[in-house]
Structures are given as C-alpha cells and as structure tokens.
Amino acid sequence: MNAPLSNSALIEKDQAHMIHPLHQNAAHEHGKVWVRAEDSYLYDADGNRFIDGLSCLWNVSCGHGRQSIIEAVNRQMQELAYCSSYNGSSNRPAIELAERLSEICYPSINNFYFTSGGGESTDSNFKLARYYWKAKGKPDKTKVISRIWGYHGVTFAAMCATGIAPYWAAFEPRIPGFSHIPAPDPYHYPEPEDGSSLGVAAANELEKEILAQGADTVAMFIAEPVQGAGGVIVPPDDYFPRIREICDKYEVLLVADEVITGFGRTGKLFALDHYGVEPDLVQFAKSITSGYLPLGGIGVSDEIAETIRGGDKPWMHAYTYSGHPTTCAAGLATLDFIADENLAGQAAEKGAYLLDRLHAELDGHPHVGNVRGKGMMCGVELVEDKANKSWYPPEWGVGPKMTRALIDQGIFTRMRNEVMCIAPPLTTDVPVLDDYIAGVRAAIVEVFGE
Ligand SMILES: Cc1ncc(COP(=O)(O)O)c(C=O)c1O
Fold it and tell me: Could you give the C-alpha distances from 351 to 276, 295, 329, 374, 378, in angstroms and in order?
C-alpha cells in the first residue's frame, strides 16, 4: 500500500485543481489538509494536532466525533436519505425539527423554512420581507439596512448586506437598495455628544438611515446579535431594545441573523434573549447540525407566517434541499445533544472564564487594544498604538503573521485582520481553554514582543 500523502504533497495537488472559498494562492501554500478530528482538536495530514480555535467556522459547537449525531444520520440515510419537501411532500425529520424549533425559539416564532446554510437563509429573508410588505399593501418597502462589519453570507444579495468592503471589491456593482449603518462597537464608536448612551446613539443611526431612505421604502433591518466574522462586536445592553422601538415605529422588520449565535454559543439558545427583544424573523445555520451536515433556515413570526398561509400569491421560493430528511435528522440529534449537555449553560460558564482569563493575560500587553466577548465567542483586537486605537497598516500583515504564530502554538483560528476570533466548541474543557489562552499570549509575544 502506498504511504499516505504528506500535507505539502496534498496541498500541491489541491492547488492544481481546487478553487477555495476566499481563494488566495499565496496564503494557501501553507494551508492545512485536515484528515481527522476529535472533541476540540483537528489533525492535519502530517499528524499534527491543533486546537480547533473557531469550532471550524463557528459551527462545530458540539465538538467533533459525536456518535449520536453520526448514528442519527446513518439511520436516516438507511431509511430515506432524501425526498423533496416541495409543496405536496414532507418527511418526518423535517416536521419534527420544525416543531422542536418552535418550542425553543422566540415565543412568537413558530414557523420554519429550511435551507442549506446561512447565505440562502439571508436571501430567503430578503424575499420574505418583500413578500410580506406586498401582502400588506406596501410594495415599495423593499430596502435592506444592515451594519458595517456585519456578515450575512456571500450569495449575491447576501453579499450586498454584508458590511465588510473587501467582499464587494471584485464583484461591484452591488444591487441597489442596500445600505449600512455603523456597528455598535463599544471600543471604536465615538462618545455621543448629546448625552445619550453609546448603545442608544448607535441604535439611533438606524432611525437616521430609515428617514434618509424614506420609511415607506425600507423593508427590514438585519443584524447579528453579536457580530461574528466582522470581529466579535458585542453591543451595549441598551442597543437592541432601542433598535426594536425604531423598527416598530417605522414598520421595519427586525431580522436577527443568528447563524453564529443560535443554539447556545453566547450562553442563551438564541442571543436576542440577552436583551429581552424578539425579532420578526430569525435565521440560523451552522450549529443546528454542529456543522456535520449543511442545514440552515429561517424562523418566521406568526403574523408573517399568516401572510404565506393565507396569502393570494404563492410563495415561489424553493431549494432542492429545503427540509432534507437527513440534514434534519442531524439537526434533531444535535438539538438533543445541546439540551442533554446544557451547552448554552456551558457556554455561559466557560465563556465567562475564558473572557476573564484573556483579560488577565492580555490586557497589559502594549499591542492588545481590546479584549471582548459574550459566551464562547471572544475577540482580541491588536493595535499599533493603544492610546489612539490605531491599527497597523494593512501591508504590515497583522492577520497573516498572527495566523502563522498561532499555528506554531498548535492553534487554528481565523483573524479579521487585526481581530483574533476565539470560539472553540462549547464542549471544550477548561484545561484546553487554558492551553488556548497560553498559546494566544505566546503568539502575540512572538509577533509583537513582550
Ligand atoms: C452571521 C452569519 N450569517 C450568514 C452567514 C453565511 O452562512 P453560509 O456561509 O452558510 O452561507 C455566516 C457565515 O459565516 C454568518 O456568520
């Protein structure tokens, strides 16, 4: 038998034939080929072990290798691997999953439409918002407001809501009718001059934008309860209550993008619960199957669902894999694991420990500008000058340098250039968290000195 190919030999073949998400040749030269995973660890093709510092892509919340999910998928595949869920067809796992979600999601959200991931869910919500306002006799309400540093996926429409400019550059022009307001970032948002709190001032940016666009043209505001890929931005507690008031005042749907925050990562099953706010629409993906199979979806308030059930226009929106029985079976087994292991509670408790320890280890470093987090979702922002919070110039390459240094420490995660994102599986034990924190500190010292 031939010896298995090394990491570098596999990467050479990969570079001959694969185009990757976010493809950049040079960065991929040192890429990792993953061959195995267990709990909170990933193993590359050379047998090296790494802490899975971001739960892969914020999704493997239950950790790797959970037999109950694997077995549920196997059983369902033996019985009915796939069938259509187009109107006129359904299947047991999809029905059961929708019912289960209605029990754990926001009280007014009891209807669910399934997709294969986050971007499809974003697009589904754009279309549902239009559908709803047409049914309500307000067909001009079509515009979408989102936030700078928001990430909502990269289908063409979702990309337009995503507020991270490098995602647009090669694909302009964007679709008209999308605009962005500043993020409620307690580290960078300027001190409000009118005496209001930072959270209220940042939320009032939405009111200004609705008025600038014309309230009768705005369909929805989409926001992650805690911004993830844009650098783990945790809003002040009074931000979302004010956002809810503004959305109600101007008849703008509030859409919670819980693709990362859903299913326990922040310490609650759904993250607007931290702020006592209910959205009109919610979207989820990632952790609903702990990443084991691709599944996403939207949750729809009773009032909006009524326009679909009782509407005179058919809901002509469909994906081949909506309500896929096997992905839904994975979802059900994952929700069982999340409940049985109290993963939201674990995230709250271990997340508080993680954040405390990161503060203790890093706050004193001259290039650590800000440490922040909620639950098992933390960010460490690296700055050139702490006094004025300025970043290193892009050509200095904070992101690539830190990524390499973290790999040297046996940690694999992602950087939003100057922000290190820290989001291991919710099952990660405290000793592994301690290794993670020590590795982060060592990597920062390697790149920036003591
Ligand atoms: C908040 C949020 N929304 C949407 C998406 C897009 O999901 P997908 O990559 O499954 O299309 C992501 C992906 O990271 C996300 O973090």
Answer: 20, 26, 29, 7, 8
Q: Do 391 and 187 form a contact (C-beta atoms < 8 A)?
A: no
| Closest atom of ligand 1 relative to the 294 alpha carbon | 10
Please give the Cα distance from 86 to 57 (Å, whole number).
Answer: 30
pLDDT digits over 394-444, tens only?
999 999 999 999 999 999 999 999 999 999 999 999 999 999 999 999 999
Q: What is the pTM of this model?
A: 0.98
Q: Which pLDDT tens digit goes with each residue over 265-278?
A: 999 999 999 999 99
pLDDT at position 67, please? 98
26 — pLDDT class (breaks 50, 70, 90): confident
Does 260 sit in the ligand 1 pocket, CB within 6 Å? yes
- Region 382-390 average pLDDT: 97
Name which of 427, 393, 428 is nearest 411 in CA terms: 428
Atom of ligand 1 nearest to the CA of 150: 1
Whether residue 257 has its Cβ less than 6 Å from ligand 1: yes
End-to-end CA, the chain: 49
- d(CA 284, ligand 1 centre) in Å: 9
Number of Cβ within 10 Å of residue 175's Cβ equals: 12
SS3 of 370-398: EEEECCCCEEEEECCECCCCECCCHHHCH
Is it the case that residue 1 has pLDDT exceeding 80? no
User: 3-class SS at 436?
Assistant: helix
Q: How far is the CA of 118 from the centre of ligand 1 (A)?
A: 4
DSSP string of 152-164?
Answer: ---SHHHHHH---
DSSP for residue 190? P
HEC-encoded secondary structure of 292-321: CCCCEEEEEEHHHHHHHHHCCCCCCCCCCC
Assess contact for 223 and 258: CB atoms under 8 A.
Answer: no
Q: How far is the CA of 124 from the centre of ligand 1 (A)?
A: 13
Which pLDDT belongs to residue 411?
A: 98
Pairing assessment for the beta strands 411-412 and 378-382 based on DSSP bridges: unpaired
Chain centre to alpha carbon of residue 79: 32
- Cβ atoms of residues 378 and 423 within 8 Å: yes
Q: Which domains does the chain have, with CATH numbers?
A: 32-62+342-448 (3.90.1150.10), 67-340 (3.40.640.10)
pLDDT value of position 30: 83
Q: Is the C-beta atom of 229 inside 6 A of ligand 1?
A: yes
